[in-house]
Amino acid sequence: MIEVFLEFHNLLFKGFFTTLKLLGAIMLVGIPLGVLVGVLGGRYSKTVSRFVHGLKFFTKIVPVLVLLFWLHFPLQALLGVVIDPFWTTVFALGFVNMVATAYVVQSELTLLPRSYSDAGMTLGMSKQQVVHHIELPIMFRRIIPDIILNQAAMLEYTLFASLISVSELFRVSQTINSMIYDPIAVYSLLVLFFIAILAPMHLLVLYLGKKYKTQYV
Question: For the segment 3-27, what is each residue's pLDDT rounded down to a tens digit?
Fold first, then answer.
């Protein structure tokens, strides 16, 4: 395994950084938009709330791989365009990430105790001030573990990008294995790379979950 790493470390790190770039772009698309839509649905608009529930249902019944392939092949053929598979993946997974984030935010705002809002109103704060200065700070501490778990899922979904020719870590590993046919060494290295990314994320979720989840009911 060490010999394989030394020989192909440039390719492996290139795939590793492509995977990280994918994840970063998916997070930049999904988290800010998801928070915005979730806040609108959770506090300002029942129409947006129903829309979020509809999108969540859609992402449950349509597998991510099917959505990715539809965006990459049929849709681009219909539109007569060719888009870099990297950005097709970012759009597809960014959309799924946005919906998941919006649903988490909206659900937490719905569950937030009414007493917080009432206390702010009693102090003369407007509804907007209550949301910005009381509800959102409390909510963010609650949702951070779920948001991080969503990003871990997005990282796992990036494996599908290999099927539309994105040279991320899994596709690079397949290429190396086709060259030397040493699946034990190659895929063991793949496991180690994913442990290096996912283990800190899950440990952080455990820590934050213990710290914040039980602060109120």
Answer: 888 888 899 999 999 999 999 999 9
pLDDT digits (tens, 9 = 90+) for 95-120: 999 999 999 999 888 877 666 666 66
Read off the pLDDT of residues 173-184 as tens digits, 9 standing for 90 and up.
Answer: 999 999 998 999
**Element holding 175 (H helix, E strand):** helix 169-180
Residue closest to 156 by CA, chosen among 125, 188, 184, 190: 190
Task: Compute the distance between CA of residue 203 and CA of residue 108 in angstroms, rounded to an integer.
Answer: 22
146, 97 Cβ separation under 8 angstroms: no
203 three-class SS: helix
| Residue with tokens 């799924």, as numbered in its chain | 96
The owner of tokens 């007493």 is 115
Look at the domain 2-212 and name its fold.
Answer: MetI-like fold (1.10.3720)
